[in-house]
Amino acid sequence: MDVNREDAIEIFTRNAAVAMEKEDVTGSIETGKSADFIIINQNVLEVPDTDISKTKVLKTVLQGKTVFED
Description:
Strand content: 15-25%
Structural class: alpha+beta
Strand order of the largest sheet: 1-2-3
Order of helices and strands: HEEE
Number of domains: 2
Low-confidence stretches: none
């Protein structure tokens, strides 16, 4: 089964939150939610397949607070 990149992002964000029954607090960026997200160095929706593995996390934010920054 092939999964495109947009679907993969949804699987690991919104769908994961639904599976954990936490969609009211996490899984998407919305007012009133936890503000858990990462900032990466490239747009994974646009880079060639061969470059996806070169993606680096620049910043991780959990509950609105930076917990990692490179």
